[in-house]
Design goal:
Length: 246
């Protein structure tokens, strides 16, 4: 969308549309009324730092926007593509897989393709305490845990609160962020291990700290497992059911 605005003409327009591309894919299309991309330059479009001759113009840019976008889209399991005609404009679109449990959030009128929800793992029951200060990760974990029958999620946003709740509720599993306001996840693990009421509860780290030195530090701290963000949904489902399963 930023490119569509930048590389446009005076009085031009930008159109954003969304449609179901294939079952389970959402296509978002951004169309501009800019100068278009000459056919002989189109093959270099996703190359980093290739601004197709635009570096001589007065529009600022580094030439990495499309490269980054295409990598993000591919990491999401999607695709990016475009069509362009000189003097008319360009259309860029991304196809991204629709998350099964979140599709109602997009509005039922637009997203009506039925998607069969995978059943969650069976024979799991218990309580998971998730310590996390990031609201988006908490919301994602709620949707993951909802897929496992008979598992209750307790979410807290600080290590200090988590320790008290762990003593009171004795959860079956604790998922611990490391970078937290106040006490961090490693200090919280030490406090849990020092208390006879909580020391047998398995504590897994779930953190964005994914540098080799950080992973080493986390593993040495005594977490049962060290999982890194972004949350891998199938792996998380399998891990939770492995700890809580019959
Ligand atoms: Mn955090």
């Amino acid at each position: 969308m930023s490119n569509a605005v930048k590389y446009n003409r005076d009085g031009g327009s930008v159109t954003v549309e969304a449609e179901i591309a294939e079952p389970k894919f959402l296509r978002v299309i951004v169309t501009d009324t800019g100068p278009g991309i000459p056919a002989q330059k189109q093959s270099g479009l996703f190359e980093p730092f290739n601004r197709l001759g635009r570096e001589a113009g007065d529009i600022e840019g580094t030439g990495i926007g499309l490269t980054i976008t295409s990598q993000i889209v591919e990491l999401l399991g999607g695709q990016i593509d475009f069509q362009s005609q000189e003097g008319v404009g360009s259309s860029f679109w991304i196809d991204i897989p629709i998350a099964e449990d979140l599709q109602t959030g997009l509005g039922e009128a637009q997203i009506s393709a039925p998607v069969e929800a995978e059943p969650g793992p069976e024979n799991s029951s218990g309580t998971v305490l998730y310590v996390e200060d990031n609201q988006a990760n908490l919301e994602l974990m709620k949707t993951i845990i909802e897929r496992i029958p008979d598992v209750e999620l307790i979410a807290v946003d600080s290590a200090e609160n988590a320790i008290g709740i762990a003593r009171d509720r004795i959860p079956d599993l604790i998922l611990m962020d490391i970078n937290l306001p106040g006490m961090n996840g490693i200090e919280a693990l030490q406090a849990l291990c020092a208390d006879h009421k909580t020391k047998t509860i398995p504590v897994l780290a779930l953190t964005a700290a994914a540098m080799p030195a950080e992973i080493e530090l986390g593993k040495n701290a005594g977490f049962e497992e060290y999982l890194t963000k972004p949350i891998d949904v199938p792996q998380m489902l399998a891990t939770i059911s492995a700890y809580l399963g019959a």
